[in-house]
Amino acid sequence: MEQNVEQQPVTKKKLSWRQINEGVAFGLGNLGHSAFYGALSTYFIVFVTSGMFSGVAPAIANRLIGLITGLVVVIRLAEVVVDPILGNIVDNTETRWGKFTPWQVIGSIVSSVLLVVIFSGIFGLAKVNWILFAIVFVILFIILDVFYSLTDVSYWGMVPAISEDSHAHGIYTALGSFTGTIGWNGLTMVVVPITTYFTFMATGKHTQGPQGWLAFAIIVGIVAILSALCVAFGTSEKHNAIREAAKQKTTIKGVFMGIIKNDQIMWVSLGYLFYSLAYVTTNGVLFYLFKFVIGKPGEFWIAGAVATVIGFVTSPLYPILNRFIPRTVLFALGQCSMILAYIIFIVAHTNLTLLIIGLVLFNINFAQLVTVLSMTDAIEYGQLKNGNRNEAVVLAVRPMLDKITGAFSNGIVGAIALVAGMTGSATAADMTASNIHTFELLAFYLPLACAILSLLVFMFKVTITEKKHAEIVEELQTKLATGEVADAPATVATVDDALTTKVLAPVSGQPMMLEAVKNGNRGQGLPGVGFAIQPNDGRLYAPFDGTIRFTFSTKHTLGIVSDAGLETIIHVGLGTVNLRGAGFTTYYQDGQVVHAGDLLMTFDRDLIKQHGYDDVVVTFFTQPGRITARTDDWPATIQHGQSAMKVTLKPEPK
Fold this sequence. Notes:
By secondary structure, the chain is α+β, with helices and mostly antiparallel strands. It is built from 17 helices and 13 strands. It has a 7-stranded antiparallel sheet with strand order 2-3-11-7-6-5-9. Helix 8 packs across helix 14, helix 9 (about 265-295) packs antiparallel against helix 13 and helix 9 (about 265-295) runs antiparallel to helix 15 (about 435-460).
């Protein structure tokens, strides 16, 4: 194996022009994708309650509004169960253009065409036969939702397909989230001007009529298709080993079992569920607030402008604040801000200046970031507590909760419009004190209760703080090294004879025994069977042929099992868990098959030392009771790829 490896320190990795171009193209994809989702999840209900059944008798129109609203809730909830199946369809797609690209094109075109058809009121079918309309609507909406989901699954599935670099993954995801914010909030700014302008062009009336909503749907559909084409033609799927990794999809049963077995994931999920229900419902009723309560639908764009500006400020501000303020405190501050916003909405909802202040407070929130990070940290908590890592749950549970709250908020918004009399051609002048009170009760008091419950759950039940997680990781690593906590069962065939694995040095540097590594906290050597290397550079390579089992959420530790079944943990540095992934870049995915000498990770030694931590790389084996190890004669300096230890794994007792 080649040994003459460069020994210079690792510098911060820069993206190539190709990666930058692909990042821009990928980001543009979520601009239209999020706008489409906003049109479907928020403004479709507004259209249903105000313009879809124009010309239909009021009694039948209200009956259809209730029916359609209920059907949408049921269909959106069913989507949660269907998503894993759709993910499997995408994953098993094999074409000359890849597995994700075709679904970007097909999914966006089909869903956009059907969006226009539905926003046309299915060409006035309700006026001819409302029962037939209901049947056709269900069929079309299900098809639309399926193809939208195929677009959604394939879009985010593109991230590991575009690049194997975790640094690039983070940038692509951030770009997608950034443009998604623009697409979602931008829709709020343009929906009234678009619907009003095209209604005026068709009827001469300055209102939001069916003609305006149809034009709105056409524009959103065109933007969604163009955005998907940016992804399809601006990015390229790579054909490498990573593409074959992690094919198994998480089932809904698996998600719920993962939550039940890990109480911290359960509490974080519950807290986020309450928050999301409040947030999504409020966004859904803001249009009704401006149109029917304030009587100024033309000022509705302010809500989108405020959300966009605050989003631009809070997103980059979070990592800065989190350096000094624990994330649960940031979550609590955000929830208190939201609660104060609801109080303003309730007591001063007709004062536009105070309403803007309330909108600012409402959008100052770090809930999504805190939720994802807390769930991610709960992985190691679950592994220490019950031996289950539940990594796939983290990837599946937040989108699942978003879909659930989106479905329920659709039902709540539709119900508010019906019971508050905010349907059809009604205006602010038609609203009675009873209508306004009913609106406030469902639109603000109910979400306020959810916001308070979310705060209480995070304050009293979520204990997985950054400090607590660092303690859990240290304890978990010690117990894995001594065999007190078992790793997940290795997927290797049972053997009758002992198998020997030749373990290569994963880094270049000065080798040492574990007992020679002094843990700063304990002042004694490390436990377990294995070895350590004080590295000369910041590159870590696979020590043998095997499979990546898992990576700690802080990136500094990974688990790998050899083809012979030797379960191995490699972790970089002592105390580096506190860096929370900063300075670490991985070049694999969990579940990937790797070969000896493959580059797995780079780490910033300078950053580690600047924070006062040791950059020693420790390799230990998690089955100390089943192995015998023989250390090779180490030179003063070992090169990665040289033999470091031979480990014999005894068969399991029968």
